[in-house]
């Protein structure tokens, strides 16, 4: 046998072993159930979905169900499942981490923050009663984002978490709540009868409804195409609705931005893009990486100074800095209050740079910038990174 033929045989054997290993391992899928939509989760047939997906993919599929959205958000970051079927906030997190959208079971619509008619603006809600469903629900998720963008914290209000989202409008009517967050369609229906009793103080951009289906991009293209076709015409016997809607990626990005919870602006601090941060660096500004040492050692913005922000306080605009440790700022001899400084961490979802910028401001730093997009935005722009010691 020639060397060339021998290499071909070896290659074929290795490929066969790889495919066999994949088939044996199977595909892990997860249905993530919104706390306010448990009924939709109960209708899903585990056996029916596993059988259908297994036929499409030609390998075993293991389907799980979870109502723990906090845990599932972590799973999207770690890539724990090849396939997620869940609410918009789960899909939004996954789509920014190597997943592709196959479709959604409902169209998109905004969420609105509705308050008593005598409330002038969001600021008037301080100390007032906010009715919301469970803490992990999409309603609460959107409420937190809308309040944060308005410069308010959940701690600024008296929040009551109840079971039924639409009941918040009834609570407004009877005077047991001062504000709530609902889908726009729910507000429109209620407004026809009781509109004079309340008004909209804030509105989100459209948010995909129902279940969104996302799959890892490293799954073969043909398999992803077959999955998209199957979910678009999924049999009623599976208990799933057909994922015939294809929301714009920008809609999920907006959800992710709200869900990251860091405000869009920080008073007294200038928010900058990655490109702007690079230009400021070139003019002498010091870019500070506030992440943990392991992250910094693995990869960081070229030229970044490592000053870790040890975070124990809540991820909230009303965080308590006394609970955190940013002594690295006081100990370093490489940064003075007279210098321009840019704080960055792991992107808009990371609060360390937000808190560090606010703390530096309180310590007398006059020229403070905040790179909200952090390392992810920097890399997305193709800007230079390095590892410690390189």
UniProtKB/TrEMBL annotation:
Domain (Rhodanese) ranges: 281-387
Keywords, alphabetical: Signal
Pfam families associated with the record: Phosphonate-bd, Rhodanese
Keyword Signal: yes
Top-level taxon in the UniProt lineage: Bacteria
Signal peptide as annotated in the record: 1-25
SMART domains: RHOD (SM00450)
Protein's name according to its UniProt entry: Rhodanese-like domain-containing protein
Organism this protein belongs to: Roseateles flavus
């Amino acid at each position: 046998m020639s060397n060339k033929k021998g290499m071909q045989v070896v290659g074929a054997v290795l490929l066969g072993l790889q495919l066999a290993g994949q088939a044996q391992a199977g595909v892990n899928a997860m249905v993530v159930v919104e706390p306010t939509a448990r009924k939709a989760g109960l209708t899903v047939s585990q056996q029916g979905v596993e059988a259908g997906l297994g036929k499409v993919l030609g390998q075993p599929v293991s389907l799980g169900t979870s109502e723990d959205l906090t845990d599932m958000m972590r799973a999207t970051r770690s890539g724990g499942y090849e396939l997620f079927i869940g609410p918009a906030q789960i899909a939004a997190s996954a789509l920014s981490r190597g997943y592709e959208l196959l479709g959604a079971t409902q169209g998109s619509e905004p969420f609105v923050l509705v308050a008593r008619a005598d409330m002038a603006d969001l600021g008037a809600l301080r100390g007032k009663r906010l009715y919301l469903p469970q803490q992990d629900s999409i309603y609460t998720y959107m409420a937190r984002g809308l309040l944060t963008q308005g410069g308010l914290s959940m701690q600024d209000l008296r929040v009551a978490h109840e079971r039924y989202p639409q009941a918040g409008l009834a609570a407004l009517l009877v005077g047991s709540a001062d504000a709530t967050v609902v889908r726009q369609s729910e507000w429109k229906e209620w407004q026809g009868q009781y509109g004079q009793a309340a008004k909209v103080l804030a509105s989100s951009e459209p948010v995909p409804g129902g279940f969104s289906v996302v799959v890892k991009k490293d799954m073969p293209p043909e398999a992803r195409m077959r999955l998209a076709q199957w979910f678009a015409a999924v049999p009623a016997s599976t208990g799933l609705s057909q994922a015939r809607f294809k929301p714009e990626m920008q809609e999920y990005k907006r959800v992710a931005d709200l869900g990251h919870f860091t405000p869009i602006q920080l008073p007294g601090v200038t928010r900058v893009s990655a490109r702007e941060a690079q230009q400021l660096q070139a003019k002498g500004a010091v870019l500070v990486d506030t992440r943990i040492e392991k992250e910094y050692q693995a990869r960081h913005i070229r030229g970044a100074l490592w000053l870790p922000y040890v975070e124990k306080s809540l991820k909230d605009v009303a965080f308590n800095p006394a609970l955190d440790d940013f002594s690295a700022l006081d100990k370093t001899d490489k940064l003075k209050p007279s210098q321009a400084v840019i704080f960055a961490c792991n992107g808009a979802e990371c609060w360390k740079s937000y808190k560090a910028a606010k703390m530096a401001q309180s310590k007398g730093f006059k020229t403070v910038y905040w790179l909200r997009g952090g390392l992810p935005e920097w890399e997305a722009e193709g800007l230079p990174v390095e590892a410690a010691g390189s």
